[in-house]
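From the pipeline queue, job 12 of 40. The input is one protein chain; the requested action is below.

Action: predict structure.
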Amino acid sequence: MTDDGGRNTHRVSRIAHRASRIVRPPSIVLRPVRKERMKTYHIGVIGGDGIGPEVTREAVKVLDVAAQKFGFTVEKLHYPFGADHYLKTGETMPQSALDECAKLDAILLGAIGDPRLEPGFIEKPVIFGLRQGLDLYVNFRPIKLYAEHLCPI
């Protein structure tokens, strides 16, 4: 420490005097924030055919991560509708499933269609059923194969 002849002591006392005159607001009491209920979304998942189940499985993983990051929850209802289900049960997509889907917040739909069935056979009841039953745009693109050697289907 250096001896400054009392100059700094005087300065410090002036600063302390000014600080004592500052009006401070009353103490702020932080109360715990009430956690609001997380929003829950009800999502239907139709894996479909071909790469559809694989793609929807990965999409569901992304959805779960997004739910965790952004603070919502997802309840998923998995539906079996597609060619495999039809070949096992003879059922495409019943009206009762469409009625359930109408109550959901969203539907995650994978690829639909299988070379074991006539083109459009399974796509129409599932895709048209959902889109027309839920009053959505149809967006059904017919495909006409001009050269069979270009496509394995």
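Job complete. Residues 124 and 140 are 9 Å apart (CA to CA).
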